[in-house]
Every structure is written in C-alpha cells, then in structure tokens.
C-alpha cells in the first residue's frame, strides 16, 4: 500500500520536482562562483584575510533564496499530496478499508520521503560548491549542516500545509480564520491597553513574531544560520 | 427481519447535513442477496444515506450495520468487503489505467488480478492510457472495474450510470449483473433513473426529503400501484382497503375520476360497489409513474390562495 501511495505522489509531483531538483543543485554553485581567490596569491597575502568578509557579503545576497526554495518545495509537496483527494471531496480515501489516521500517516511519509530527492540534490550541489574553490585558513564549508537546515525548513512547510490541506477547504478556512482572528484581536487589545494604561508596554505582534522566528520557535529554521561557509 | 438477514441496516438514524436538510429517523433494510434500488429525486438524501452507512458521515443518533458490522466503529472491516462506486469520479489523473488498478488493488486483500484483466479486456480499456485523458464513459467503466475486481460481498453504487451514454450504461449494468449472478453479492444501487432500476432490482426503497416513504419488493411496488378510472365516486372515500394516493376528475367524463391507489388487490373492486361507484378501468403503473405518484402523495399539498 505504502509503495503505491509513494508511486502515486511521485507521478503527480515529478514535473515540478525536476526544476526544483535542478535549482537545489545549482543554487549553491551559483552562490560561490565568484568567491575563489586568485590562483597566484601568496600564502601571506592580506587579501586572504578579506575573503571571509567577502564571502559573508556575497552570501547575504544569495541567502534568502534557500529558505524560500525550501518553503516552496514543502508547500508544493503538501498540496500535491492532497490535491486529488480534494478534487473528489476525500470520498475515495474515506471509502478505503483502512483507518483514516493510517492513510494520513502513509501519505505524509510518502511526501516526506520524496522531499529527500531535492534535499539530496542540494547536498551534492553544496558539496561540489564547497570543494570548488580554495578557502582561506579559518574558513570551513558546512554542506551537510546546510542541507540539514534545508531539509528541516522544507519539512516544516510540508508538515504545516499537509495538516491544513488534510481537511476540507471549509476546515482549512475555519482554522485560518480563527488563528488570524485571535492574533489580530489580541493585537488590537494589547494596543488598546498600551494606549490607556501607562505601565502596560507589551505588544502581541512583537511577542508572537519573536516566539515564532527565534529559537525555540518553529520558524527559527527559516531565520537562523544559513551559512554554507563559516568560520 | 433480523440483522443477520440484512446486508445494510439503518435503525432510527438521524443526521443533519445543514440548516436546510436533515435525515429523520431513517430505518432501512437491505436483504442479503438482493438488488436494492434506492430511488429519490435529486437532493432527497440518497448520497448522504450512503455516506452514513459507509461510515463517511457520523449519524447524530440511531444504529447502522454494514455486512453485520457496526458503523462507523468497524467501517474499515466492512469496507474491505464492499465495492463502492461514488457519485463523483475519484481517480488519480496522473496515473495510467493499469497504475490506477494496481493502486486500488493494493488496499483490497480479496482483489482478483485475473478477473481484473478479463474485465479490462471486456470493457475495452487501454491499460496505458492516462486516467486524466479518459472519457466520462471510460472513467465510469474503470471505477466499476475496480469495484468488481475486489470481489465484494456488497456493491454500493451511487448513480453509477449518470451521464453515461446508452452503450456504456448497458456495458456497466451487464458487468454488474454478471458479477451478481456468479458471486451472489448484494447490490445497493442509488439512482434517479427509474427505468434503469425497474429492469434489474428486486427491492426498492424510495427516499424523499430525507424520509424513506416506501420500502418493499419491486414486484409488490409495481403490482400494488394502480390507476383506476371510476364513475360516480363518493365525495369522501371513507375507509378504503387500499391507500388512496391521489384523485382527480377525468377529462371527458362528467362524473368520472382517476384514482391512484397503492396496495391494490383484485377483490378490492367490492369497495367501489359498496359506495355506489363503478370501476371503468384498472391500469398498472410502471415504476416511474408509481414513483411520481408516490412522491406526489407523500409531499404536503401547497396552500392555495
């Protein structure tokens, strides 16, 4: 059964998977293409010392692409996992002779397993990228840590959207509406309180934002250290 | 009829699908080995009833059993022996016909590969064709194939031939009847195409606005509903030995009326003699006419201004 679920997801996502796999492999290579030191540089040349700063500045330009790619990847796979079921109102899945939770777990497992394909491409791309140029002393490549972060980020997007998409459209809209209402309602309330009570200096948006993107918040993986090359 | 004799059994089932529709105290019995036609106009609750006894919807009250198992608690076990053809096609469009069959087969331990291959040939389906490129008729045939090749004890068909052309419809019904004659399976077939059910069903249930208004053997249904032309009918019919579904004056006959009755038997002509009326003609109604008259009689009359 699992094999068939895996195959079905592979067949429906493969057209999107190919460009994503190419992007996952190519992005690290593109990011490091201008980072190599001149070949005739002597060992004690002061330019070597500037390489770290140069790498850092260049990497900042490329950095946003990786978490964005991971989020797109996870989202596509999550939507793909449920799109056919949504099309027929989940009737087929509900009529199968197995508990719903089992079906959901297998579907999720199949999607997560397929995510490993672009992650593998990114790992290989990162390895090749790191090996493709001389690094000054003190600098080091972290291709596997980098790929691990990419995997975690794509799994997070996949998991969140998978959970949302596993229900009906009505449920998804309901969950989103309740969630957004609580956040915006809470923000309005805290804003009101801070305007009228002098000692009250707390904003829900600020707190919520930090709780989400700072460790141990769930979205820290998108905003943490994405350096492929570091000290 | 006890639960051991029924493949599907609903007892006092209630379910509310929304503010404007509900199923109230629905009691329905589908005997083992029967071909049960489930009739009702669009929106009467046929699909909702099917989803209730297959465990997709949860009833607010009442008891449901499918192949002797309580629903929804044992729905997976019961569904393993049930071939279900939903109203809306549910196949994965990215797969080929052969892949779709393999996918479906992987969930059913009773799947018969050899027979699936035979049905594939009989239904003239190309195994390499992508499901997304199949015509409506081919899609219908593939879904029926998948339901039959799992060798079910019960087939639940929700409008299986709706929108299919006559040739495909005949192929589909033939395949179902062939299977039933060999396997002795129970068939529950929901449709608003009354003529289709008349030919194949031996039991009939009529649902209207969430109420089961009739459930009886097809023969009784067809024989029991008559159109009777009567002259000099009484103003008030009084205690009739049959159920008077409707009465209307007959064109061209000054003192004549047409009565539609249910539960008719030949000796009942004595009733008319007793009230001073004369029976001019008794006409058998076909299932469709009977169905329409039955619905007309069970619905509340609109208030006239």
Q: Describe it for me?
A:
The complex is a heterodimer of chains A (231) and B (305). The longest helix of chain A is centred in the middle third of the chain and has 32 residues, at 100-131. Chain A has one domain (2-168, 219-230). A two-stranded antiparallel sheet of chain A has the order 1-2. Chain A has nine helices and two strands. By secondary structure, chain A is mainly α. Chain A starts with a helix and ends with a strand. Chain B folds into two domains: 3-220, P-loop containing nucleotide triphosphate hydrolases (Rossmann fold, 3-Layer(aba) Sandwich); 226-284. Chain B contains ten helices and 14 strands. In chain B, helix 4 packs antiparallel against helix 5 and helix 5 runs parallel beside helix 6. In chain B, 41% of the residues are buried. The A-B interface holds A 1, 3-5, 7-8, 11-12, 84, 87-89, 91-92, 94-99 and B 54-56, 76-77, 79-80, 82, 84, 86, 88-95, 99, 102-103, 106-108.
C-alpha Rg of chain A, in Å? 22 Å
Span from first to last CA of chain A? 47 Å
| C-alpha end-to-end distance of chain B | 46 Å
Biggest pleated-sheet summary of chain A: 2 strands, antiparallel
> What average pLDDT do the residues of chain B reach?
86
Total strands of chain A: the figure is: 2
H-E order of chain B: EEEHEEHEHHHEHEHEEHEEEHEH
Most extensive protein-chain contact, per-chain counts: A-B, 20 and 24 residues
Strand order of the largest sheet of chain A: 1-2
Helices of chain B, by number, come to 10
Oligomeric state of the chains present here: heterodimer
Q: Which stretches of chain B are poorly predicted, pLDDT < 50 over at least 5 residues?
A: none
What portion of residues of chain A is helical?
over 70%
Helix content of chain B: 25-40%
- Gyration radius over CA of chain B: 22 Å
CATH topology of the largest domain in chain B: Rossmann fold
Strand order of the largest sheet of chain B: 6-7-8-3-9-10
């Amino acid at each position: 059964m699992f094999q068939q679920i895996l195959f079905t997801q592979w067949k429906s996502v493969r057209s999107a998977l190919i460009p994503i796999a190419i992007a996952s492999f190519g992005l690290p290579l593109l990011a490091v293409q201008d980072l190599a030191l001149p070949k005739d540089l002597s060992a004690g040349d002061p330019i070597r010392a500037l390489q770290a700063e140069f790498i850092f500045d260049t990497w900042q330009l490329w950095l946003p692409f990786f978490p964005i790619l991971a989020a797109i990847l996870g989202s596509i796979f999550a939507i793909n996992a449920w799109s056919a079921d949504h099309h027929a109102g989940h009737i087929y899945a509900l009529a199968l002779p197995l508990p719903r939770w089992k079906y959901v777990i297998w579907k999720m497992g199949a999607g997560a397993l397929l995510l490993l394909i672009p992650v593998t491409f990114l790992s290989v791309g990162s390895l090749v990228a790191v090996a493709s140029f001389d690094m000054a002393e003190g600098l080091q490549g972290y291709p596997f840590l980098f790929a691990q972060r990419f995997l975690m980020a794509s799994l997070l997007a996949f998991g969140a959207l998978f959970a949302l998409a596993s229900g009906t459209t009505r449920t998804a809209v309901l969950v989103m509406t309740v969630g957004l209402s609580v956040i915006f309602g809470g923000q309005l309330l805290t804003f009101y309180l801070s305007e009228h009570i002098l000692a009250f200096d707390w904003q829900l948006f600020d707190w919520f934002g930090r709780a989400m993107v700072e460790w141990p918040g769930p979205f820290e993986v998108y905003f943490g250290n994405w350096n492929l090359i570091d000290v | 009829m006890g639960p051991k004799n029924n493949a599907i059994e609903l007892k006092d089932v209630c379910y509310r699908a929304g503010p404007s529709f509900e199923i109230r105290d629905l009691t329905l019995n589908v005997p083992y080995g029967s071909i049960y036609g489930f009739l009702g106009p669009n929106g009467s609750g046929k699909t909702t009833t099917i989803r209730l006894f297959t465990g997709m919807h949860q009833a607010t009250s009442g008891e449901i059993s499918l192949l002797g198992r309580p629903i929804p608690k044992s729905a997976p076990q019961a569904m393993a022996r049930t071939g279900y053809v939903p109203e809306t096609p549910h196949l994965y469009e990215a797969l080929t016909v052969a892949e779709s069959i393999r996918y479906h087969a992987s969930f059913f331990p009773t799947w018969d590969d050899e027979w699936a291959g035979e049905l594939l040939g009989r239904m003239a389906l190309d195994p390499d064709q992508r499901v997304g490129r199949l015509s409506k008729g081919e899609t219908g045939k593939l879904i029926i194939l998948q339901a039959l090749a799992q060798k079910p004890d019960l087939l639940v068909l929700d409008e299986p031939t709706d929108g299919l052309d006559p040739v495909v419809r005949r192929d589909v019904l033939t395949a179902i009847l062939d299977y039933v004659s060999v396997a002795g399976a129970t068939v529950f077939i929901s449709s608003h195409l009354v003529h289709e059910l008349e030919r194949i069903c031996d039991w009939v249930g009529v649902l209207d606005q969430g109420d089961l208004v009739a459930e009886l053997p097809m023969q009784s249904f067809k024989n029991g509903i008559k159109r009777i032309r009567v002259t000099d009918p009484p103003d008030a019919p009084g205690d009739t030995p049959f159920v008077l579904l409707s009465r209307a004056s007959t064109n061209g006959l000054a003192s004549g009326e047409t009565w539609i009755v249910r539960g008719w038997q030949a000796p009942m002509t004595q009733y008319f003699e007793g009230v001073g009326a004369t029976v001019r003609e008794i006409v058998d109604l076909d299932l469709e006419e009977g169905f329409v008259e039955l619905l007309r009689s069970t619905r509340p009359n609109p208030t006239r201004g």
